[in-house]
Prior knowledge:
alpha/beta, Transcription Regulator spoIIAA, five-stranded mixed β-sheet, 32% strand, globular
Amino acid sequence: MIQIRKPDISFETKAEGDVHILDISGQLDAFTVSDLKNEIKKLTDTRVSKIILNLSKLSYANSTAIGTIVATAQQLRKRKGDLKVCGMSDDIRKVFDLVGASKILEIFKTEQEALKSFS
Length: 119
């Protein structure tokens, strides 16, 4: 029997004023991208329009997941909001660069820098 194990992913959300920060731990790929979509939907369903994704605990991201992040940012911008990314490792930054997401998203080293960019 073949057993497929879903990679580990977890999310933690906190708010700083009207900005919501989503800390993502684990791996973002084709198996977990639906989990990411659900977490973002929980926020956007409550009219949250300013989101920071903190990727400091993310160990892997593929192009499918990055595409979801870019699409979310574009949707939020249509509603006068935005999605910004912070804390990613050099390896994950390379994937963002390869797929062109670095040209579309604002990427910051720290959560504090990302928060300041909303003011």
